[in-house]
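Obj.: predict assembly geometry.
Materials: sequence records (below).
Method: joint structure prediction, all chains together.
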Amino acid sequence: MSVEKPASTQEEARLFPARRKFLAGLAGAAGSGCLMALGAGLYATQSRALAAQALRPPGALPEEEFLAACTRCGLCVRDCPYDTLKLAAPGDPAPTGTPYFTARDIPCEMCEEIPCIKPCPTGALNPALTDIADARMGLAVLIDQENCLNFLGLRCDVCYRVCPAIGQAITLEKQHNIRSDRHAMLLPTVHSAHCTGCGKCEAACVLTEAAIKVLPVSLAQGKLGEHYRKGWEEREKHGGSLIGDQLELPVRGLEGKPHGDSRVKDDPPSDASYPEPGQPSDAGTGLNSRWKP
Amino acid sequence: MTAARRRPDPNLPGRDAIARKGWLAAHKWLLLRRTSQLGILGLFLAGPWFGIWIVKGNLSSSLTLDVLPLTDPYLLLQILAAGFVPAATAITGALIVAVFYLLAGGRVFCAWVCPVNIITDTAAWGRRRFAIKAKHVPDARTRYWLLAGTFAAAATTGALTWEWVNPVSLAHRGLLFGMGAGLWFLAAVFLYDLLIANRGWCGHLCPMGAFYSLLGKTALLRVAAPKRDACDDCMDCFAVCPEPRVIRPALKKAGQESPVILDALCTTCGRCIDICGQKVFKLTHRFDRRSSP
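Observations (raw structure tokens):
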């Protein structure tokens, strides 16, 4: 059989040269056509990840949908009055042809009219967004706590002051400065409920490399499991605990201490009488609570 | 007068036509075509360059004089294949474009609008000028497989995969919004056409041309060969035609009586009209069956 087979194919080739040529040509066309499409698909799949420094215009659909909806026409870019938006060329940090902006270069000015959304022909920029404060272009993250001047104990506050949602999207949280032990640190803290991701804070950060950066929300934000419930929120919602009063058990070594005082090393040296908080103690023996049954 | 006729040279077509009609008449349609291509590009560029906003956007989607929306129907179908239903503006725009090309002939886009045409025409001229022989020419049906492949890729990835690499939109968008590394793609198309396959891209691979050829079955605007009896078989028209196979049925009555080039792959570029010293061809309408001696 194995000897006959090529012979018969040759025979066939002799008898039907046109048909063979046709089929070979068709297979070649189909093969190379599909290969090229596959290559483009692979390239696109690999480069579809949105780079961290590329933010979408306000109202952009979630990235998955956006990549199907955006025609890459640049009408939003043309109608941006501040030249914030750009269309990505191959090699830029966003999928080819799609609009993005780099917060550190030109942040979004959050126009009240949102002129970039209006010309979008497909709705890739969702016209349902009418209040720019509801935009979620990204989320600011104070990414470098080692170099942020406020974390170093200085009063820079620039990110806080330039924020269009001042006092809401970024607040300054007071905290004791352990290093100097006598000053306060005012730590810029971002609140996702108000941050639009406009990028003003990143653009204004006085450091050579911004300590606060606006990232695409998918990179910036974690997500609780769907089943998580916060006890204190549930209690408030229902006007009381859902599982009744809880049995409170004493913690060894902390009996009789004021509520919230969890210091164990301030324990008395020998007898059972506790010194008043703040009174000097000679304990210093770490975790030995000296509790005796 | 026939004594003045020079020996035809397939590498230097048009010498006869220039000798008989003069340079201008032998380049009339080519010049008109370049005017059309550059004029359309100019309309788009007038905005960003001179602040005259006549047309905004690019060939993928545009807005003319703030009223006329146009969208590439091929792109619209890819969006639908990717699973997104775009807003009415995009659909209206695509319908307008589709109706126009159904009447004018789909591949009128390739010859009169597409910016890549200038690149591949230059490559084809280079091949003739330097007598680079055709090698490794893919099957001309490859483009239809690639066309199907681009839809399949859009459907499976849920993104406009082909737009990552499409040289047509890369070229036009690049000229208007910044080329970036897109230049390498265009250089690749040029070198491929110049050194590897004669009319390789536009005539064999481009899925966009394949798509627009599907809109060419009802084209009213057509090139015909009413004076085909005067043909002296110099082959100049075949040498310059981007789709040489479309000429023969009309010129040599191969399978049809009508002198009209009916093949949907004809780009209506009119180069055959220019190049013919015997004035065999002319631009006419689909139903013009007259043969003038």
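Conclusions so far: The beta strands of chain B are 55-58, 61-64, 68-71, 221-224, 282-285.
To do: check interface contacts against the pulldown list.
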